[in-house]
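Hello K.,

You asked for the raw outputs rather than the summary table, so here they are, unedited. I folded two proteins back to back in the same session to keep the settings identical. This is the first:
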Amino acid sequence: MSTANTDRKELRKMRRLLWLMGVVKIPMIHYTGPKLLQINDETVKIRVRLRRRTKNHLKSMYFGALAVGADIAGGIHAYYFANKSKQNISFAFKSFQAEFLKRATSDVTFVSNDGAKVQEVIKEALETKERVNRLIDLKAFNKEGEEVAIFKMEISVKIK
C-alpha cells in the first residue's frame, strides 16, 4: 500500500476517534466541532471554524474555543502515537501558556510540529515506567495565514 493511501487511512481513523472522543468523553470537543486536517509523525493541523458557538461578543474566536483547538492539536499527537504503538497511555496537560497576537476573526488552524517531542516523551515513559513531562509548542493561524496565537503546553504522559 502506498504511503499516501496509508496517510489517508490513518487520517480517517483519527478523525473518527476524535469525533467519538467528542461525543463520548469530552463534549466540548463535539460542541466546537474541530476538523482534523492533517496528522503524521511530525505535524498535526486542526481547524476550528468561526461560527456562533465559537464566537465572542467582539465577533472573534472566543478564548475557550482557542484553548480547545490548542488542546486537541497537542493531545491528538499523543493519542496518535499511542494508537500506533498499541500502548495504553494516560496523558494530560500539566500547564498551558498562551500569547494572543491578534484577534481571530476567521476560522483558525492550529499547527503542532512537535511530533518528535511527543514521540520522545512516550518512549521515555515506556522505558522509565514513570510520568514524563515535556513542553510542546503550537501556533494558531487565521484564514490569511497570519499568526494569531502561540501556545506552550506541558504534556504529561504515563504508561498504564
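The second followed immediately with the same parameters:
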Amino acid sequence: MSEIEGKSSVRAAGAKALASFLTNEIATGRMGDGMKLPAERLLSEQFGTSRGAVRRVLQELKERGLISQSVGSGTFVRRGAAHSLPTPVRAVEEDLNGGQTSPAELMEARLLIEPLMPRLIARNATGADFAKMAECLERSEAAQTIEEFEHWDGELHRTFALATHNSFFLKILELSNRVRDQGEWGRLKRHSLTPERRKEYEAQHRAIVEALRDRDAETAIAALTGHLRQIKHNLFA
C-alpha cells in the first residue's frame, strides 16, 4: 500500500468512526434533543479525518433526520432523533445501565479486547490522537478526586480506541465506559485505588503512550496487558 493510499484509508476509517460515534451518542441520549455538536474543526482533529469528510458525515446524518444545521449557529441534534434509530443500540445501552454487566465481566472483556488495539494505533494514529493522549495523561495526573481521575483514565482508554481509527473499538470502549459509570465499579475503585496504586497506574499509562508514540506495538501490548491485569487484581483482591 502506498503512503497516499494509507493516509486515505486512515481518513476513511476516521469518517466511519465519527459517523458511528455521533449515531451512538444520539441513540443513547448522551447527545440529547437540541444539543449542539462540536465544531467541524474539532471533529476533524479528534477523528483524524478531513473537514470535507466531516461535512459529508454531517450531511448524511442531516438527511436521516438526526441533526439540523443553521448557518452561523451550528449543528444540533433534532428533537426525537434517538427514536428514529434502530432499537438494538439503545437496548444494549439500557442493559448496561441496568447493571447486567458486572465489573468482573467488564475486566475479562477488556483483557481480551483492548490488547488488540496497539497494532492499529501504531499504524493509524495521528498527531492529534497523541495530543489527546497527552492531555488525558496530564489531566488524570492533576486530578484532585478519585472521580476526576477515573474520568480521565476512562478518556485515555477511549482515546486509544479512537486512535485505532476503527469504529468497532470505539463502540466497545463507549460501552465499557458506561459500565464504569455504574455504582459498583465506583465502589470497587474507591476501595482499591490507594495513592501508591494511582502512581503505578499513572506510570503505566505513560509507558503505554510512549510505546505507542514510538510505534512500538509489541511493547505497548505488553504494557497495556500488564496494566489491565493489575487493575483486575487490585479490584478483586
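Residues 49 and 194 are 39 Å apart (CA to CA).

Happy to rerun anything if the numbers look odd on your end.

Regards,
P.
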